[in-house]
């Protein structure tokens, strides 16, 4: 079965706002085995709106629309769709009462204009919306289904899941979408593609998407079938082949960010971590503490931009800084070992480098970063040359630091394969 | 003049990818005084593609399309548009040579399939694309203009600016867009709306948009006219009225983030700053060091999650922590003053609170945050109760801390108005 998504609202045709509801809607429709054929963004003008709905209903049996259900004159979705389907608009007293009750709870008077939101096309089902004043609407017309949903994502999403999904489920066949998401770091997009292309091209019924995100590559596998067991078998088989092709570069099998993988490893192993950052300016500490409960493993961190702070907070000898330079392998190691020693943590991480745009030299260009991980089994240090702007370099450096912790657990003190930085 | 934007590509109809080119294109078109009437996302299917282009060309004189210019069988934009306009596709030898040269530079063989990218609809102008193999195309057909651009944003954007913009400029009237963006913090969306609505509703020719972003409200003013002087006068007048209505809550007149405003203030005043963070986990240090050149004013920061670290790094007396609790006004002040004292900075910032989801109590629920700013004129401390999830609470807390630095310079040690936290 196929569907189209229409996002209604003139604000979505300005440079400031993007329709993001459609990503959520597409994912949910895909899970039901419904493919999205087209997405349209249209402003609050009656003729254009009518044309968009008419064309969509001529092409597909399912149309999901968001927005244009507000109380003001320029909210035209209800009227337009009713007219298009030749239905009268009737006032629904239950909706009137719900809107009045909502205003009473907020201790405000209900403006008369809100009564527009109680107008319902004849024969439509009202989808109650406890999170806002505009209810959704569900209309079946011969073989076609139309869902009209409010625009704010925090209203649209629960409304769709609770009320539209069950109605669609009753009407669609047993075909469902099955999905896996692997995440990879330390390999560029074209390298990932090169390694896994010979595998995924063998599976005509599985759709593979490779997406580049900052510091990582995301691989999506999707297949549509009625048979959950068969889908599981095929997806597992592909994942196993990808594991052989990509080795220890896969850091997640469930689409979670690297800091979450590392948090889980630290928690499971009852380990703790402390950080001493220069060029990343606290981003590593910030990523490690994004995760709820991070106080169980994150003992503390310092952002030591100045040489004096490197000495005061991480015991880096001033002579070392003058002899080797603040951006050097020795200083990265001293930062990692110093912060680990002074906090008594399982791991200490040290990062020093040049994030740019200024500060680079011929010998140490922008993007030069030294990253060290100290633990009971010794200290590993990596020198990397990272591409991109300041933001990208800082993020990528923290990604490598986190990955060094992950890889530590893979090899548990045993020799590790030599790691060559390979961005695209 | 009106335009439509068509984004071509089946990947844009999956849950993983959003067409973001259209935001850039809309902004550029708006600047020329061209309004965007509709945005369509359509997959790589010939009939659907043809329908999308035909309908758009029936509605508007300008159609800008992105994507579908690649070398493979499913890249159909060229063929579809040529057929629709009744033009033959001819091989352009200059394009062939450019593509061959590109492959030679990358030291790779050119696959024969890339020759498809040298096919040009009769009478079309080739828009050279030094950043990729697919050139853009510009087609004028009676009163209509069509630009076909490659999908990757890093190819599309410069191609549009360098080659499409001048062609459009020649054809449009002298009407241009003039734009201002104010940013406000410490007031919720509905409070901003309430205060400025009586002002902006008086200006029928200026379009006002109020957008809520994390920790701030953005106010966009747009007007379209031929007369730059007149536009400047009206926009200045509105901005001055907004300043009266919103007072010191406006932190930027040019749409820049708060850390940039604070960085500028610190640099201008040759001031320095140091941070001691608990619940924000390094986010404040990270935001202060996002700005290039931050080593001129950022002396260093500590992330002291544990009580022991608060004492070791920011000289917070252990007795104070046991008596008042780690989340208390006293500890926030001690963190700010301690880190300022030990680094000798102009400002010291201390943040301690409960970011959640766990750790809250009846007395100190999730969202309770104490923020202190220490300087030569004394220490200010604010207790706030922030709404939202862990990420929102952490961001909002750093936003308030940065704003306290900004406000310090507004009043320069003189009494400040009492600040009540007013999220929506």
Describe the structure.
The structure is a homodimer of 424-residue chains. With 424 residues, the first copy, chain A, is of the alpha/beta class. Chain A folds into 3 domains: 2-171, MoaB/Mog-like domain (Molybdenum Cofactor Biosythetic Enzyme, Chain A); 176-252, Alpha-Beta Plaits; 258-411, Maf protein (Alpha-Beta Complex). The first copy, chain A, has helices at residues 21-31, 46-59, 77-84, 93-105, 153-171, 189-200, 228-246, 258-268, 283-288, 307-314, 318-324, 329-343, 390-411; strands at 2-8, 35-42, 62-66, 89-91, 119-121, 125-127, 136-141, 144-149, 176-184, 206-213, 216-225, 250-252, 273-277, 298-303, 347-353, 368-375, 378-385. In chain A, a hairpin with a 2-residue loop joins strand 16 (368-375) and strand 17. Chain A is elongated, with a radius of gyration of 28 Å. The mean pLDDT of chain A is 92.
